[in-house]
Each structure stands twice: as C-alpha cells, then as structure tokens.
Amino acid sequence: MTMATRRIDRAPRPSSLADVLDLILDKGIVIDAYVRVSLVGIELLTIDARIVIASVDTYLRFAEAVNRLDLQPRGQVTGLPGLVDGITEGGARSKTRGALDGIKETATELIGSLTGSDDDDDEAPADAPVDQAGRRIPTGRGAPQERRGARGDG
Amino acid sequence: MGLMVYGVARSGHPVPSGMTGIGEPPGEVRLVRTGPVAIVVSSVSDQLVLQDHDAVTYLDTLTALLRDGPVLPVRFATVVTDEDEASHELLGPAEDLVEMLDEFDGLAEIRLEIAVEEHVEIARLLDASPDLRRLAGQVTGAGTPADRIHLGEEISVRLAERRDELGDGVRAQLETVSAAYAPCRPTDYTVLRQAYLVHRSDLARFDAAVQAVRTRLGRDYTVSSVGPLPPFDFTDVQPGPADVGHWGWD
C-alpha cells in the first residue's frame, strides 16, 4: 500500500482487458431481429477474470484473514498496516492461539472434503456474481465447469 | 462478408477518414444512414472470431466517435449481413432512437471504482462488530471447517453491506454533479463500482467531486475513475427484471 493520496486523473479507458469486458459485455442496445442478425464466434480469453466466484474458497479466505488478525500479537503486524487497533481485544486471542496448528489444511482440500456431496444444496448469496445470461452462479466448486458448459451451448 | 455493428448515431455524425474497426485486415468504419439516424459499421469476414483485442477496438471506436456527438452502443458482437438488412433491422423504430440520441446528447458515462484492501476492511468490520468478533473467537478456537465457512460467509455478507453503504455515501456526493447514476454488478466484496452519466460541461466539477471523495475516504481506499465513455450502463434496453432503472431519471 502506498502512502500517497495523490491526485489520480481520470483514465480514458479501463486499464485492464477484464475491465473492458466488464464494461461492454451484455450492454448496449440489443437488436430485435429475427434470424438474420447473428452473433459471431467469440473467444474471449480473459472472460473468466471478471467473475469472482462467491464460493467456499472466498469464505475460507475471509476466515483465514480473521485468523491472521487475531493471532498477530501487537507490534508484529508491520506487513499489515492499519490492522492492529481494536482488533486483538476481546476473548478471541487466547482461544485462537491453540488452534493455529490444527488449521493446516489448504482451502482446496477442505473444499474437496466438504462439497463433494452437497454441491446442489448450495445457495448463491445475495450478491453472487451472475453469468452472461444473468443467472446466479451457484456457489461451490462446480460453478466454473457449469458455466463453461453453458457457454459452449451458444 | 458481414457488417460489424458498433452503435447508433445521428446521420450527420462525422466519422474520421481512415478510421478502421474490427478484423484483419480491419474494415473502414462508416455510417449506414436511414433518415435522421445511422448505424456505425465496418466490414468483417464471415470467418471472424472475436477475440479480446476486438473488444478493445469496439470500445475505442465508440469512444472516439463520442467526441463529436451522441453515440449509443449496440451490443458487442452484433453482425448483420448487409446494409439493407442493417437499415431494416436496426433502424426500424427510428423515432425512438432519435429520442434516445437527443437524451444522451452531451452526456458521457464515467465509471468509478473504489477498492479497499481486503484485510483492512475485514479488520474494520470486526472492530465495529462485537457479535462477529465473538463468532470469530468461537470458530477459530474450536470451530469445524463448516464453522469457518459459516464465519467467512457471514463476513462476506457484512462486507457487501459495508460496500453498499460506502456506495450510498459516494453516490450522495456525486449525484449533484451528474445527470444519472447506475450501479455496476459487483465483482468483489471489497470493490465498489458505480457508473455516472455526466454532462461534458460538468466533467471538471465531477472530477473535483471525485477528488473530494478520495480525500474523505483516505489512503486505505483506492479511488479511480474512467471516462468519458459511451453510455454502456445507461442503454440497457433489453427486456428483463428492472432492478436498475434504464435511465436513472424518471
């Protein structure tokens, strides 16, 4: 993180391809034509970049972030500016210390053990990302595959 | 051969000579006129497969034309077979398009993005939420993996709430210097994205207001803006749930 609150001028266009796609895809006037207006083939390589899956992965990342907050003694968080104040208070610290060693599994392993049987029960959160057709992307590991499959139909 | 369609403009809209569009080799960008309105097209091969850089060309073409008057984007990847078809299919409801072009005359979209470091935002969230701190203490102490997922999900919900609250505050600051507002689909829990329709004559005022937002939020927030852009987030005229006002003003 930089210190500066410097003036940043308005950019003429999005800086990344993913942001360009986020801006233009599924936007603009849709022509109500019958058969003669067509969509040509599209191979947008970065299309996945614009979608953040609201998934178990994300949730575990957040939970891990909490872990890091609570487990960092004061004064040893130089890599995380602005984090210390007010966070380490309360009863959480002593409890969380002992748990650290027990949490060695990676997020991926956890997901594998948890979502294998109940993918279909997952519900998308209120602001889950939507795919091109505006459908909510289901949470869980199955989502990317489903989406690719759906795109292949078009 | 086909015609790649970029957008709709007035028939008298100037097109820079030598301006080229999508494809290899790229065709010249030109107007197909019907009465007061025209569609912006360029010739493309039947074998065209659109790729990433074509999306950039599409955007740049519309943005360049926007300097000389209103341009309404037509959805990326729309192709018609010839000029007759273009006129018939696209310019059927010409009076609607004339009206739309008038409404957007002098206006451009500015996109605003405000990102905050995830760990900073989670720290603040916990700081402000005793109940969440309590839950975090229980989960990190003796929680099962399912407990941790529950904690993470709870955090994600609260982060989204904070993001939306931030958005409300920012909108309040920018609404007075813009003609319309549209939310953008969220891409992340800690990234706020908004779109504003701004009069060209108000661009400097809008920039100053964005700077005021930047100053108010402080250094933990990265505030960036992009534009002037064609009004992509304000010309969504496809049928569908109207959770976003098509025009932002009524």
Structure described in brief:
By secondary structure, chain A is mainly α.
Q: What does this entry look like structurally?
A:
The complex is a heterodimer of chains A (154) and B (250). Helix content of chain A is 34%, strand content 3%. Chain A is mainly alpha-helical and 154 residues long. The longest helix of chain A has 16 residues, at 56-71. The radius of gyration of chain A is 22 Å and the shape is flat. In chain B, the strands form two sheets. In chain B, strands 1, 2, 3, 5 and 6 form a five-stranded antiparallel sheet that branches. Chain B has a four-stranded antiparallel sheet with strand order 8-9-7-10. In chain B, helix 5 runs antiparallel to helix 6 (145-174). Strand 1 (38-39) of chain A pairs antiparallel with strand 6 of chain B.
Short key terms for the protein model shown above:
heterodimer; A: about 150 residues; mainly alpha; 2 strands; disordered N terminus; B: about 250 residues; alpha+beta; 5-stranded antiparallel β-sheet; 4-stranded antiparallel β-sheet; 7 helices; about 25% strand; elongated
| N-C termini distance of chain B | 42 Å
Helix content estimate of chain A:
25-40%
What share of residues are in beta strands of chain A? under 5%
Order of helices and strands of chain B: EEEEHEEHHEHHHEEHE
Biggest sheet character of chain A: none
Structural class of chain A: mainly alpha
Record field, number of beta strands of chain B: 10
CA(first)-CA(last) distance of chain A:
42 Å
State Rg of chain B.
22 Å
Q: How would you classify the helix and strand content of chain B by structural class?
A: alpha+beta
- Helix count of chain B equals 7
How many DSSP E strands of chain A? Answer: 2
> Which regions of chain A have little confidence, pLDDT < 50, spanning 5+ residues?
1-6, 47-53, 71-154
* Oligomerization state: heterodimer
